[in-house]
Amino acid sequence: MEPAKSCNKCYVSLHAPDDRLPLERELLTDIRTYGGLLKPSDSLFELIMQLEHAVLTSTVNSQIHTMLLFDTLERLTGVELQRVGCEVHARTLTASVVTFYMICRMHFTCADANKVYAETKRRKRDLAKQAKLS
Protein backbone atom coordinates (compact mmCIF):
# COMPACT_ATOMS: atom_id res chain seq x y z
CA MET A 1 0.00 0.00 0.00
CA GLU A 2 1.36 3.40 -0.96
CA PRO A 3 1.59 5.74 2.04
CA ALA A 4 0.71 8.89 0.09
CA LYS A 5 -2.56 7.35 -1.04
CA SER A 6 -3.55 5.81 2.26
CA CYS A 7 -2.44 8.58 4.65
CA ASN A 8 -3.90 12.06 4.37
CA LYS A 9 -0.96 13.59 6.28
CA CYS A 10 1.49 12.11 3.78
CA TYR A 11 -0.57 13.29 0.84
CA VAL A 12 -0.87 16.82 2.21
CA SER A 13 2.86 16.94 3.03
CA LEU A 14 3.82 16.51 -0.63
CA HIS A 15 2.35 19.70 -2.00
CA ALA A 16 2.27 23.31 -0.95
CA PRO A 17 -0.96 24.75 0.41
CA ASP A 18 -3.26 26.11 -2.29
CA ASP A 19 -3.51 29.48 -0.59
CA ARG A 20 0.26 30.07 -0.53
CA LEU A 21 1.56 32.71 -2.88
CA PRO A 22 3.73 31.30 -5.68
CA LEU A 23 7.45 31.30 -4.97
CA GLU A 24 9.94 32.58 -7.52
CA ARG A 25 11.06 29.01 -8.25
CA GLU A 26 7.47 28.17 -9.32
CA LEU A 27 6.83 31.05 -11.70
CA LEU A 28 8.11 29.36 -14.87
CA THR A 29 6.11 26.22 -14.09
CA ASP A 30 2.99 28.32 -13.58
CA ILE A 31 3.53 30.12 -16.86
CA ARG A 32 4.18 26.94 -18.86
CA THR A 33 1.28 24.96 -17.36
CA TYR A 34 -1.14 27.85 -16.83
CA GLY A 35 -1.14 27.02 -13.11
CA GLY A 36 -2.39 23.47 -13.64
CA LEU A 37 0.31 21.60 -11.71
CA LEU A 38 0.42 21.20 -7.95
CA LYS A 39 3.34 22.95 -6.32
CA PRO A 40 5.72 20.83 -4.24
CA SER A 41 6.04 21.38 -0.53
CA ASP A 42 9.29 22.87 0.73
CA SER A 43 10.41 19.46 2.04
CA LEU A 44 9.68 17.72 -1.28
CA PHE A 45 11.46 20.50 -3.16
CA GLU A 46 14.51 20.14 -0.88
CA LEU A 47 14.59 16.36 -1.38
CA ILE A 48 14.41 16.75 -5.16
CA MET A 49 17.19 19.34 -5.07
CA GLN A 50 19.40 16.91 -3.12
CA LEU A 51 18.69 14.14 -5.63
CA GLU A 52 19.27 16.41 -8.63
CA HIS A 53 22.57 17.60 -7.19
CA ALA A 54 23.72 13.96 -6.91
CA VAL A 55 22.65 13.25 -10.49
CA LEU A 56 24.38 16.32 -11.88
CA THR A 57 27.64 15.65 -10.05
CA SER A 58 27.56 12.07 -11.37
CA THR A 59 26.86 12.96 -14.97
CA VAL A 60 28.58 16.28 -15.59
CA ASN A 61 32.09 14.86 -16.03
CA SER A 62 31.22 11.27 -16.79
CA GLN A 63 30.18 9.15 -19.73
CA ILE A 64 26.95 7.20 -19.53
CA HIS A 65 27.76 3.74 -18.20
CA THR A 66 25.98 0.73 -16.74
CA MET A 67 26.72 1.67 -13.13
CA LEU A 68 25.57 5.31 -13.40
CA LEU A 69 22.53 4.79 -11.19
CA PHE A 70 24.61 3.09 -8.52
CA ASP A 71 27.33 5.75 -8.74
CA THR A 72 24.68 8.42 -8.27
CA LEU A 73 23.13 6.63 -5.31
CA GLU A 74 26.58 6.19 -3.79
CA ARG A 75 26.94 9.98 -3.77
CA LEU A 76 23.91 10.06 -1.46
CA THR A 77 25.58 7.75 1.06
CA GLY A 78 26.03 9.62 4.31
CA VAL A 79 23.82 12.51 3.15
CA GLU A 80 20.92 13.25 5.46
CA LEU A 81 18.11 13.32 2.92
CA GLN A 82 15.13 15.54 3.52
CA ARG A 83 12.20 13.36 4.53
CA VAL A 84 8.67 13.73 3.26
CA GLY A 85 5.47 12.40 4.75
CA CYS A 86 4.13 11.89 8.24
CA GLU A 87 6.17 10.47 11.13
CA VAL A 88 4.86 6.94 10.52
CA HIS A 89 5.40 6.77 6.74
CA ALA A 90 8.28 9.21 6.20
CA ARG A 91 10.88 6.52 5.59
CA THR A 92 8.87 4.54 3.03
CA LEU A 93 7.42 7.59 1.30
CA THR A 94 10.85 9.22 1.01
CA ALA A 95 12.25 5.96 -0.39
CA SER A 96 9.40 5.84 -2.92
CA VAL A 97 10.11 9.40 -4.05
CA VAL A 98 13.85 8.67 -4.34
CA THR A 99 13.19 5.50 -6.35
CA PHE A 100 10.73 7.17 -8.71
CA TYR A 101 12.88 10.24 -9.22
CA MET A 102 16.07 8.30 -9.88
CA ILE A 103 14.41 5.95 -12.36
CA CYS A 104 12.89 8.89 -14.26
CA ARG A 105 16.13 10.84 -14.16
CA MET A 106 18.20 7.91 -15.44
CA HIS A 107 15.65 7.36 -18.22
CA PHE A 108 15.92 10.97 -19.37
CA THR A 109 19.71 10.98 -19.03
CA CYS A 110 19.98 7.89 -21.23
CA ALA A 111 17.44 9.27 -23.71
CA ASP A 112 19.51 12.44 -24.08
CA ALA A 113 22.70 10.43 -24.51
CA ASN A 114 21.03 8.26 -27.15
CA LYS A 115 19.87 11.38 -29.00
CA VAL A 116 23.43 12.72 -29.08
CA TYR A 117 24.76 9.32 -30.18
CA ALA A 118 22.18 9.07 -33.00
CA GLU A 119 22.97 12.59 -34.21
CA THR A 120 26.72 11.87 -34.20
CA LYS A 121 26.15 8.64 -36.09
CA ARG A 122 23.96 10.45 -38.65
CA ARG A 123 26.56 13.19 -39.09
CA LYS A 124 29.34 10.62 -39.66
CA ARG A 125 27.19 8.79 -42.21
CA ASP A 126 26.48 12.06 -44.05
CA LEU A 127 30.16 12.96 -44.08
CA ALA A 128 31.03 9.51 -45.43
CA LYS A 129 28.48 9.97 -48.23
CA GLN A 130 29.93 13.37 -49.08
CA ALA A 131 33.45 11.95 -49.12
CA LYS A 132 32.38 9.25 -51.63
CA LEU A 133 30.82 11.89 -53.90
CA SER A 134 33.96 14.01 -53.92
Automatic annotation (TrEMBL):
Keywords: Cell projection, Cilium, Flagellum. It comes from the Eukaryota. This is Flagellar brake protein YcgR. It comes from Frankliniella fusca. The lineage of its organism: Eukaryota, Metazoa, Ecdysozoa, Arthropoda, Hexapoda.
